[in-house]
Here is the input.
Amino acid sequence: MQGRQLEILKAIVDEYVATEEPVGSKTLAARAGLGISPATIRNEMAILEDAGLITQPHTSAGRIPTNRGYRVFVDQLAEIKPLSLAERKAIENFLDGATDLDDVISRTVRLLAQVTKQVAVVQYPSLIKAKVRHIELVLLNPNRIMIVLITDAGRVEQRMVELQFEITEGSLSDLHKKINLAIAKQSLSNVATKLDGLVNNYRASDKSNAVIVVTTLIEMAVEHPEEKVVLAGASNLARDNQDLSSSIHPILEALEEQVVLLRLLSGTDSSVRVQIGDEQSEKSLRKTSLVTVGYADIGALGILGPTRMDYAASITAVNAVANYVGRFLTENK
Here is the structure.
């Protein structure tokens, strides 16, 4: 593609995103600052249309970008739109006073939906890559304890267990110290190996109780619960989105399924990924675009909206929020 054609494509995308109206040659000549005549613009638009990058929605209308046109536009983005002062302050302050992981994720998904005006999806930190931060053994009564496993990302798993024999506070404290010494800062996949042989230090009823606690801990470490994704801003899809008026219900139904949300975020890494229209694997979402990125190598987040979205601003916001929440979780391990 020649440079002038790319400039015209960018101008069409920018104008259509801003107005939601097909873009004509006279409009581009007047507003885009291209320095060429409407006739020249029309000739270049014909080439872009032949290439499948823009299309005419109806006779005598201007042109709108196709999904292929959006892809070329995104791939050629040289400058990412800077955050506004209000957006930057919101991102810098949104985790102030966060109390736990649930609070962090809840704040993150709400902020992302607010800043981008799209649907935001955030995955909880994955347990598969997690390490043990701490184990708590809480005595509920002489025959019952609660085991709490806390990961380095702040995720908490807990389990109640019934002991075969009564246990004292002193015995439980001793077991608690030995378990933490063995597996603190270890990956969950190493928990079973690190606890191997620990119960051999105990005798009689203490050994029976230790076996129950250790076995339960290993189960908690290796039997990862289903990964969790949270969503916010679904109402943004219905706000002034003519593009989605005929398909919004299937989109909302798809977004209610955790397995769909997990697939949307699968395969993400530290680089922003943009999937446009029919590039999406979910059939019901092929009138939307998805912008995703991983955070701190333990989770992922992103936004979903109409293909007519401000890609430069969306990429900036998604990347900024991911960097901030990733840094927050890493620094607060």
Q: What stands out?
A: The longest strand covers residues 132-141.
